[in-house]
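== Folding task for one protein ==

=== Format: two labelled lines per protein ===

==== Paired sequence and structure tokens ====
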Amino acid sequence: MNKLKALLICLLTTLILAACGQGGEEAIPEETTPAPPPRQPFTLDFDTPIDLYTAADMFDQAQALWDADGGELWGIPLHAPLLLGDPITRHVVANMQTPSGIFSYAGNGVYAGILGGNYLISNTAIDFDGLTWGITVLPQHTMSEDEKVDIFRVVIHEGFHAVQSQVVSGQLRGVTTSEYMRAAEPRISVLLEINALLVALRTDDAGLRHDAVRDALVIRNQRRTDHPDAAAFENMMEIAEGLAVFTEILTFDDVYALLDFYEEWMVQFTSGSGLEYFFPYFTGAMYSFLLQQSGADWQQGITHQTDLGGLLQGALDIADLPNISDIDLLQYGYAEIAPSQQAWFVEFEILQQEARAFLAGRTLFILGNVALQFGDEVASVLIPNPQGWRYLVFYGDMAIASANWRLEITGSHMRRNFRPDGVHVTFYDNIIIEDNGSRAVTPMWTLHIIGDLYEIRPTEGGGVAVARR
């Protein structure tokens, strides 16, 4: 049973049984954690779509985990201001009042309010009313216990972001780019590095662990030699996100449970452009775990450009790295990884060319200089910039609006095609288009046309086309 499930039991049960004695000896009761008192009814003078009982449970669970850690993981208390939010209605609940008293007290340690449109309601950290808050999206639908556990893992992740400035010193400077990841070779390299790190973490053989770490560092260094932009981007992302994933160990039994979770999640990104943003979450956490296992005193003096791989190389006293040609890459899955990533790259190049050709001189949904498009399984915004096209990916529920349209998304099963007369979107749902052509609705998303520039038309194959009138 992992720590999170154990805490759930402590928080939700009202009786804890004493242990049974052995043989004829008198039973000695085990030391137990007292069950919390029953929750009092919540009182608010306005309605909120957020389940206040679920929010209160998550806030109590976070408090219990932070208390149990006692500052051991990072040398600082992890108690953080937390928000749970709904990005459609912009309602939020908090584990504390804001410094200026903006929220209303709902009871049971929960505060509620509405967050203005200038603040991002997503899984992130935001500066609001003088505090840095970890904010997590809480869906409106009834959540299963498994979904609650997964969301709570994100709460701990974002809670660390709220206090991360106490761990990572200095300001983030300079411009980092992941453009180098838009090719097959660096993607292959990243996946090989990950597999080598997994070998190192999953073995009890010290020699094998040493060799696997050495090989991971060789692969990593070769990629950074070939792509000078790689080091700054990867270091920054591994510190920003890898350390937060490392902190998620608070919600798992051990390193291996967390690795299993992220390894399964990683598979989703191996055939998409999201790999370039996601892999540092995993590599940063794995280098952190290996540093922890090495016994190194590594958690002091971290900056946004600290190289966790370099710290591990020093901790394990790996003085000289061989050439990559001397590494047996087949043991890390090269025979399977290389062909699949090369095929992905060819497909992605075609997709980029189609996108550029379609968007050249054409106006679709406009929000400032941003053209809204759709991508596989996520809603993506393609932003033109001097370095090329950048994909900003949104996960989960969201709402985007401009003067002429508002898009609300509550699901993520989409597929994109480009058409000469507009953007064609196919979903795996039945689509209802209102008679006046101003709204298209599915169980997952609602598109409102609130201006006179666009029209909604049904298309063959269960999609909609939005085109200029």
